[in-house]
């Protein structure tokens, strides 16, 4: 059985006086990394791209630091840094500093970003230009664009089909009042979770957060509705003139428990994670059709996706797809090979001792399992112990439940046409 002691970590949790939960992974000698995760992701957009636009604006200037360069200067002067990102569920804001002495700077900067943003109309226009440039950059890169294209296909016909950035029309449509309204509707202590790692006591961190961060908004937390599953269109192609065709093949996997999520992680690893995975061997080493292949199981509140990503020449897309479908069919009929199952379990568990060495790795690995959209709170140690106890029978059961013939999706960025491609699984 794995414990936090195996990693030299202590896990602590408490609530701030405003009700926000705080989770700390205390790691001796580690720098301090703090994440504020606000339940204000793209699932709550009225205009596509609003959440992402708000993310840009909250780090673009505040009452104390009227411009982004002043905000950044405040934390960089002690060797720290800030960052932010938006996903389906949340807007996440991060602050990292070297040691406990710099804690007031980290929490002070977080407070400015979360509670005191200016939303200056001139800065809004500057950020609009930057976001449009970000969108063009993504759309010019088929490997990057493929993920948005795939998730739009998986969630077709639902409110979740729109990419995080929005589109050119929606980005141009978003006004200062839209940004302020979104912020007012979704930023509050009830919708915020803090996850941190570093060499610090939780009482010290709690006091600093309480003294620094005070939301004006009081909006309550709420769970997003679950979008329906639609299989009307299983193949979607976006034309790119590149010689290499990039595609993502996968399934919607709305896992209902931690055990199901772990089983799907194992399945994703068996299929396409690492050089010893089934598809790496079949597609790269036996056939030479691709340079690399990757796989992932990604989960948000009540929804998830399992996918395989790769690229090949235009003429080899169907051949590559056929091999993927053939390998899936073998597993569906015969089950997962026991040797492969045991190998993958050991690989996943051992790799955590390599991956979990930094403060931000502890926050990244645990954030999605601790935010207040999750009914069943957990952490990486829970997941490791479930992995260790997982049986091949359970993994095969989950495979048949979610990785079913006729339920796959294919998003292609290249010269192929949708009519020329066929999914044989």
First-last Cα distance: 38 Å
User: Number of helical runs?
Assistant: 15
Main beta sheet: strand number and arrangement? 6 strands, mixed
Walk across the major sheet and give the strand order. 1-2-6-3-5-4
Low-confidence stretches: none
Report the principal-axis shape. globular
Query: Helical proportion?
Result: 40-55%
Radius of gyration: 22 Å
Number of strands: 11
Classify the beta-strand content into a percent band: 15-25%
User: Helices and strands, in N-to-C order?
Assistant: EEEHHEEHHHHHEHEEHHEEHHHHHE
Average predicted local confidence, pLDDT? 96
Going by helix content, strand content and strand pairing, the class is: alpha+beta
List the helices and strands and how they pair.
Layout: E1 9-15, E2 21-27, E3 32-38, H1 50-58, H2 68-76, E4 81-86, E5 91-97, H3 103-115, H4 121-139, H5 142-154, H6 168-173, H7 176-186, E6 192-198, H8 202-212, E7 235-239, E8 244-252, H9 258-272, H10 278-286, E9 293-300, E10 303-313, H11 317-334, H12 338-355, H13 359-370, H14 380-389, H15 392-402, E11 408-414
Parallel strand pairs: 2-6, 7-11
Antiparallel strand pairs: 1-2, 3-5, 3-6, 4-5, 8-10, 8-11, 9-10
Helix pairs in contact: 1-7, 3-8, 9-15, 10-11
